[in-house]
Amino acid sequence: MIAWAKALGSAVLIWIVLRSYLVEAFRIPSASMENTLLTGDFLFVNKVTFGGELEIPLAHLHCCRLPAARAPERQEIVVFRSVEDSTPNLNIVKRVIGVPGDTLQMVHDTVIRNGQRLDEPYALHTALIPPPDDQYRAQIRALQLPQYAGKDPGNYHPNTHDWGPIVIPPQHYWVMGDNRDESYDSRFWGFLPRDHIRGKPLVIYMSVAMNPFRVRWNRLFRHPS
């Protein structure tokens, strides 16, 4: 009995280490990254590139981060822990739009980075009439105002479709979903701290659609980019 307990304990320990520092499975729960990633896509996430950290399941403890091979790059898809207190252990996937030091602005849903309009073939706008975001405007303004780089901060009243220019602070990133009208991202909750970034999608190993239920065989073994 003791031998079985030791074997099980060793297996669990190995699983925790591999999951924390090498590869973790992740399921796409929403449409915020369509059409790059679909609801029901199952991914393997590479933890090595950005430096994995030891995570104790159920206890939700995070510690002992390893050095990163490199920093996250613009346009790269990343998986990260939520920055909001209400969902501290929620894993989220978005695309990096701005890195530390970048100046970002959005004008009528067009992103301008460091003075250059971005060509974003991955961006999807599904709403014919964008939903109102009045409930978030005060929050958006409060989060962005300290980094506002415009000439008239007193009259700065951003929304999710028109905001900036803002400067990304050190050790922070700006992330957005590809499906812009269905994504709860940096436009709502602000800058993403570097230490919340956990990894990058490695490959789609399974993709399941509902209504009707079917396997999307054509998506298997794709590398999201």
**Major sheet characteristics:** 8 strands, antiparallel
Can you identify the CATH superfamily?
Umud Fragment, subunit A
Uncertain parts: none
* Helix content range: 10-25%
CATH architecture: Ribbon
Arithmetic mean pLDDT: 90
Number of domain units: 1
Question: Can you offer a commentary on this structure?
Answer:
Strand 8 (110-113) and strand 9 form a beta hairpin. This protein has a single domain, classed as Ribbon (Umud Fragment, subunit A), CATH 2.10.109. It is globular and about 70 Å long. The protein has 3 helices and 14 strands. The chain is α+β, with helices and mostly antiparallel strands and 225 residues long.
Element layout with pairings:
Blueprint: H1 2-21, E1 23-27, E2 41-46, E3 54-56, E4 61-63, E5 77-81, E6 91-98, E7 103-107, E8 110-113, E9 116-117, H2 137-144, E10 163-167, E11 172-176, H3 186-189, E12 192-193, E13 197-209, E14 214-215
Antiparallel strand pairs: 1-2, 2-13, 3-4, 5-6, 5-13, 6-11, 7-8, 7-10, 8-9, 11-12, 13-14
Which properties best describe this structure?
single chain, alpha+beta, 3 helices
Short description, anyone?
This protein is of the alpha+beta class and about 220 residues long. It has helices spanning about 1-20, 135-145, 185-190, and strands at about 25, 40-45, 55, 60-65, 75-80, 90-100, 105, 110-115, 115, 165, 170-175, 190-195, 195-210, 215.
